[in-house]
Structures are given as C-alpha cells and as structure tokens.
C-alpha cells in the first residue's frame, strides 16, 4: 500500500490495537482510486456485521472489530487466518464525501465506497461556437 499516501483516502494512521490482552488481528486492505471516488476492500474472514464498527472521526475513517478466537485444542497443519481485536484508521481526503460512504460485507469481504464530492469530480465543459 505504498501509493496510498498519494490517494485521497490517504495513508494508514494507525495499525492494530491489543485491547484486553487479546491477540491482534490485522486485516488485509486494498484501496483503489477511481474517477468517482475511492474503493476500500478489507478481508475480514469470520467477522460479522454485529462485530464490526465503521466510523468517520474528523478526517479519519475507522474500521474496528474483532474476529472470534478458535476453540482451544485445535491442531492446525497450516493457519493463515488471524483472530482477535483490530482497529485500522485511514486519513480521508477533503475531496471525499463522507456523508455518502456506503459499506457492504459479503462473504468475509468488506467493501467501502467513498465517493468524491460533486465539486471534486471531473466535469466536461461544452465548447460553443460563435
């Protein structure tokens, strides 16, 4: 995500948190810059809508939640999914319309659409002949 500091969504402000001495989970994120705004996708396997919190705090977008821990005694051959609490913060550019952010959680993938404000969108200027 090296280029994210150049996008209107900005770079990550903080990473994960270790609340209540639980394991920390760091969900994978991708941010796409599009003509009409930004698209943020987060891989959140095991996260439910009820355990996920999304907020705009000032100029930051905050993703907060938890992934339930697996029962004790399991013996994994390979484990790549994390569990525990998480909090990720991203700086939001002034050209994004925070009042119209939409969110969708489908099959463990959170998709956020951060549209540009109308005045920040490119517009075509008509050329008249005299």
Strand and helix map with partners:
Elements: E1 12-14, E2 29-34, E3 37-43, E4 52-57, E5 60-67, E6 84-91, E7 102-106, E8 109-115
Antiparallel strand pairs: 1-6, 2-3, 3-8, 4-5, 5-6, 7-8
Keywords:
single chain; 130 residues; mainly beta; Immunoglobulin-like; four-stranded antiparallel beta sheet; 0% helix; 38% strand
Q: How many helix segments?
A: 0
Strand order in space, largest sheet:
1-6-5-4
| Shape label | elongated
CATH topology: Immunoglobulin-like
Walk me through what this model shows.
There is one protein chain. The chain contains no helices and 8 strands. The chain is mainly β and 130 residues long. It has a single domain (2-70, 78-117), classed as Immunoglobulin-like (Sandwich), CATH 2.60.40.790. The N and C termini lie far apart (49 Å). 18% of the residues are buried.
In short:
The protein is mainly beta and about 130 residues long. The chain is about 0% helix and about 40% strand.
């Amino acid at each position: 995500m090296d280029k994210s500091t150049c996008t209107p969504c900005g770079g990550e402000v903080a990473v994960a948190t270790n609340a209540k001495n639980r394991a920390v989970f760091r969900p994978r994120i991708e941010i796409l810059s599009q003509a009409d705004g930004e698209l943020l996708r987060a891989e959140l396997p095991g996260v439910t809508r009820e355990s996920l919190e999304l907020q705009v705090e000032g100029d930051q977008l905050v993703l907060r939640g938890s992934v339930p821990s697996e029962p004790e005694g399991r013996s994994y051959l390979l484990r790549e999914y994390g569990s525990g609490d998480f909090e990720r913060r991203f700086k939001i550019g002034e050209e994004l319309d925070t009042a119209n952010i939409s969110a969708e959680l489908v099959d463990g993938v959170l998709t956020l659409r951060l549209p540009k404000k109308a005045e920040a969108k490119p517009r075509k200027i008509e050329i008249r002949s005299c």
